[in-house]
Amino acid sequence: MRAYSRQVPRLRSIVLFCRDPYVQAPFWSAALDVPPVPEDAAALAAHSLASDESVLLRRAGHPDVWVSPVGHLDPPGNRVHLDLAVDAGEVERLVAAGATVVREERDWTVLADPEGNEFCAVHAEE
């Protein structure tokens, strides 16, 4: 019998739709510790993105994160939901980067990014 190799899809990128990439890209870059590619970092610094231009956050070993402006957004909480694995002190770092705490649960904290998209900071098991 011949063995069949099935290639499982892997996550290549995440797209975060937003109103303002000048706010959202720096926030998600800090939250995920994934920097913008050099040309997008320069465009953010110079405030020279085209009105429909996305920002690419990239770091080896991690999925790409595209921060993409769109004309219409669904209500906050429906655009994307990420669960971030965090260690002690990370919730405070996320708040310092611009997140707000929505509520505390036993094993995670629900936060919102600067445009109101909710995500969870899942506390490391002790």
Largest sheet: 4 strands, mixed
Over all CA atoms, what is the radius of gyration? 17 Å
**Total number of beta strands:** 7
Strand order of the largest sheet: 4-7-6-5
Identify the overall geometry.
globular
Question: What class would the helix/strand composition place it in?
Answer: alpha/beta
Number of helices: 3
Could you list the spans in which at least 5 consecutive residues all have pLDDT below 50?
none
- Tell me the helix content: 10-25%
Percent of sequence in beta strands: 25-35%
Q: What is the helix/strand order? A: EHHEEEHEEE
Mean residue pLDDT: 87
Q: Quote the distance from N terminus to C terminus.
A: 46 Å
Key features of this structure:
3-stranded mixed β-sheet, 3 helices, 126 residues, alpha/beta
Structure report:
With 126 residues, this protein is an alpha/beta fold. The chain is built from 3 helices and 7 strands; from the N terminus they run E-H-H-E-E-E-H-E-E-E. The strands form 2 sheets. A 4-stranded mixed sheet has the order 4-7-6-5, covered by helices on one side. It has a 3-stranded mixed sheet with strand order 1-3-2. A hairpin with a 3-residue loop joins strand 5 and strand 6. It is globular.
